Amino acid sequence: MARGARTLDTVGWAELVALPDLDIPFVRAKVDTGARTSALHAIRLHHFEKDGREWVRFTVPARKGRSKHRVEAPLAGIKKVRSSNGETQKRFVIRTRFVIGGKRFRAEVTLSNRSQMGYAMLVGRTALKNRFLVDVSHAYMQGDTPPEGSKS
Q1: For residue range 89-128, what is the model confidence (pLDDT) as tens digits?
Q2: Tens-digit pLDDT profile for residues 11-65
Q3: Is there a domain that residue 151 lies in?
Q4: Of 57, 81, 98, 113, whose CB has the highest number of CB atoms within 10 Å?
Q5: Residue from 32, 18, 15, 8 nearest 139 by CA
Q6: What are φ and ψ of residue 21, in 5° steps?
């Protein structure tokens, strides 16, 4: 290894991701290096102003054994995103903390209705860059239980 180089943790093609700022202990996510930005399944999106700043309110639909979750977060922007079917959509963007395995970091995530997708979240390459290597032959390389300390 080159002097000063650091080793990166390895993730599989699917991982558990905690979003503590949103009070989401974990979500099953597909890791997708073909997607630039991460995306979270969200419905009932509402853009509003609070304390002179733009915010977005949304619902994260229920998972097995859990109720739906209403969230408010400062709006980081609006992006045009080309979806997997080739259509361009405008999406709300927030910045939030991610926890994958033992690694904590902040990254952007777009809010999108992913009800037709197999995973409620997609982790894109900008969140992965300089943090993780991807081994597409495995899933849940960071563990198949919720990340340690994901409620913090």
Answers
A1: 899 999 999 999 989 999 999 999 988 888 999 999 999 9
A2: 999 999 999 999 998 899 999 999 999 999 999 999 999 999 999 999 988 665 5
A3: no
A4: 98
A5: 15
A6: -65, -25
37/109 Cα distance (integer angstroms): 6
Cα torsion 32, 118, 9, 124: sign:
positive
* Token duo for residue 77: 């922007």
At 126 the three-state DSSP class reads helix
The answer as to whether 16 is a domain residue is yes
**Cα-Cα-Cα-Cα dihedral sign, residues 92, 93, 96, 98:** positive
Nearest to 73 by CA among 127, 104, 105, 111: 111
Q: Which domain holds residue 28?
A: 9-44+76-131
Contact 36, 124 (CB under 8 A): yes
Domain-embedded: residue 113: yes
Q: pLDDT tens digits for 52-93?
A: 999 999 998 866 556 678 999 999 999 998 877 788 989 999
